[in-house]
Amino acid sequence: MDSPVQTSTLHLDRPFRLDSGDIIRGLTVAYETYGEPNSARDNAILIEHALSGSAHAAFFHRGDPKPGWWDAMIGPGKAFDTDRYFVICSNVLGGCNGTSGPSSRNPATGKPYALSFPPVSIRDMVEVQRMLLAHLGIERLRSIAGGSMGGMQALQFFADYPSLFDSFICIASTMRHSAQQIAFNEVGRRAVMADPRWNGGDYYGDVPPEGGLSVARMIGHITYISEKMMQEKFGRLRKGKDDRAVFRPSFEVEHYLDYQGIAFVRRFDANSYLYITSAIDNFDLVSSISGANRCRGENRARGTGIDAMRKKKGLVISFTSDWLYPTQQSHDIVRFFSGLNASVSFAEIETDHGHDAFLTDIEGQTLIIRSFLDALIP
After folding, report:
1. What is the pTM of this model?
2. 269 forms bridges with which residues in the sheet?
3. Segment 122-142, tens digit of pLDDT
4. Total domain count for the chain?
């Protein structure tokens, strides 16, 4: 793709009902597509992003030297080959990159929603994406794929609507958070809410809670990197120590975390962080599926079960050094979907890169995913 890509926006006129029972009016969805649909329109792959991602998954925006967040995986000849597949990625509900979220304008008041935006779930996110697919004229997808929170969305969407998919690809993810995983997110949320500038979520038009959000990102980033990787990269190296300064960053790792925190607050909304991490913590695929046949309004098409899963295929990938979402949780996913009669493959990639390996360990993932997708072709 030589020309720059652009983010498109879908405006949904009809009310959208969430899991909570709340209704959003005037919903917008930001999305990007790469490649072209074939004549049968059955070569589409839906990409799901992680917590801080966006619809901009690949290629370049005009004037921006930085490509999309998974550019190494999406494109001609890459894992998700845009010469063969029509690749779609959208920003999640509750986000801050073009899809409706707490920083969006509330049409009833003309002001940002802030905390009046209703709580969202992983299922709400995929329901919005289902409407996007209908808008794009896609009735069936070759696969749905994502890492971390993106993996949760892939699992939820596939489990709710298996007839829409030939397969799923879940990378470095889980079916539900452990107490420890919830605890890390809660500390991050408390850091945001303890910042005086958070102001109960009503900070739009003023200085946002940069300090609290920066600390939250630092906490999260520690969980993304393995201890071995952090030690090899930073160790106890010091940088610019001022002996007269007290409690100023002096270790290289401190400066690195400062950089990550500052970079994050420049591109992400603090309230979106609260909403999305809450959705992640409340995600529980097993409980979700057990209640899946309780129809609600526009979602009557949802159906799960052994018959729906039969002949469906899945791929689960984990990383040896990922201590945020350890391999055992990937094994749980394999067992669960195998029990629903899906044919699920599993691969564990040896790496020191920790949870972030789904963004950095490209070669191993590419070989596995390319082989998996090739095997789906009749």
Report:
1. 0.93
2. none
3. 999 999 999 999 999 999 999
4. 2
